Amino acid sequence: MKEITLESKTEDLPGIGSGYRQKLARIGIETAEDLLRHFPHRYEDFSDLTTTDKVKIGEKVCLQGQISEIKNNFTFRRRMIITEAVLRDQKGPLKVVWFNQPYLANQLENQEVILAGKVSKKNQEIYLASPTIEKLKDSPTHTGRIVPIYPESQGLTSRWLRYVIKPLLAALRDQITDYLPAEIITKNELMDLAEAFQQIHFPDSLKKAEAARQRFAFEELFLIQLRTLRAKAQTKKQKADPVPINLPLVKKFVQSLPFELTPDQKIAAWRILQDMNKPQPMSRLLEGDVGSGKTAVMMLAALNTADHGGQIALMAPTAVLAKQHYQTANDFFKDFPIKIGLLTGETRSFNRRQCSVERILDYLKEGKIDLLIGTHSLIQERVKFKNLTLVVIDEQHRFGVRQRARLMKPDQPEKPHLLSMTATPIPRTLALTVYGDLDLSLLKEKPKNRAEVVTQIIKPSQRRTAYHLIRQEIKKGRQAFIVCPRIQSDSEEDQIKTVIKEHQRLSEEIFPDLEVGRLHGQLKEAEKDQILKKFRDNKINILVTTSVIEVGVDIPNATVMVIEGAERFGLAQLHQMRGRIGRANYKSYCLLFTSSPEIETTRRLSAMVKCHDGFELAEKDLAIRGPGSLAGHNQWGVPDLVMANLKDLKMVEQARQTAKDMLDRDPELKKHPELRARVNALEKVVHFE
Q: Is residue 667 part of a domain?
């Protein structure tokens, strides 16, 4: 048999057949180290043995004794085999029951065992229900200790994982060497790697399990910080076409706007223009709360770029948002000689006129298009720019890393400047982690002409009052959104509000005299365009929709946003949807419909009522629901341990400073080849900019 190492493939590990190899591969486990890094997500503490006289109903207990009087009984009513036994210790007997495990009758007769399970009661009789079993002659793995519970998927049970991982740890213990330098381990008070592997899987105490988890969380944060800070340094070494600032043009554009720029907008715009006037590529994230005016800042940078003779690519995640940008750009630049193209899956347009894909591509290659706006269509192989100078990616976390990289034209000697934008407020810890290689500009202020948005939680008993408010607003000439969590339900018993059923109910029973439209992601692009145009022209009073409207829909006349099943959305998403109203100077209303009595739901939705600052809400959502609530986190590909520690600002900053100190001493990590290899491996899993 081959010697087992951390690099050993699962096919070379004992106890893993072909069926289990395939199951492990489906969750990304292909080597021994991958298996060791499949960490438990919680623990059962069976370290304290109790006796039969001290068991209490409903408690999980661990008992040691001898099995006697074991037998199988077949129950015709439930059509199953019930194995009943008696466990005897020094304090007396206790009944034990297993279901559909008849082989136990032959295996456990008169055996000394440790049992771990829950105490139940039926017909006045107390018994241990379906406990985990270990014979006393074995070293305890599943009982008599703190037992790891793993995320169970693809048919991989915690019991099987413990069975495989325990001997693997013993076999590899002496081969595990720590690739973190000793001074980092000492300075940050981290557990040694070999000990951390042992304690995270089979801990001596819950305190040691947590110390091991902290070690791995810091390690992964540290690797990400090394990568982002290195990338930032490498970007500064690349060449880009500097874009001089045309101040008279900038002033003319600002004066042409129908609103006054906020101080935040002015600061962000000036920093972007200064960045682009350097011979190194700009790499900046423009993060703005809903309605803070990111688009105006971006358009100013685009205008200055086009004036220099450079081309701009603006990529949006949806056709709806791309078309909104196209409309806005044409409005902003109506008095400026900017040639604008639109390229989505179904729509091609140039200077407000439809045209063929071929003509768009020819114009682009010849430099006749200054600004091309589109979806992922922009990254097709045949899309060639004559002089791509600025790349703008809107809601960038919605794109995969390869899509973004292809738009950046890696084969070009001079790199384009990059401006990423997001309206999803990002907690500070995430900004320091995933976006650590980007310079950050924040837009917190909103334009002065934005109206007040009153947010209320609506209980089922208040539904009629809410409908009355909608009708009153429509009488004033205003319009309303009604957002449902789903398009349609999977079953008749499903109580979740859906677009299909709500549209029918509202148009037939509640508002039969009004025009009620419906919009969702399964409609064709042309149908969506037609519905949104009718809504924009006020030919639809109420639009029943999914969260497809959360970005890229600008209907200044809409003053009511109803969100059904509000508890099903994260705070960031609710805030985005609320941002679809209050876009003019009309008082507006966001009504959060919920029937959930849960305390957490009340806390979250109450935060929406009290707070209108998206950045503050992002931090609240992180605190209340944890990192899983962060929009787009699946796209980032960030390891679960890192996501779980995004609440810990101290750890994030500590890892970042440690990485900075190391790169100051060893910029290319030449003295730490294994560290460098692990940092490079992150490129495959974490979706960095």
A: no
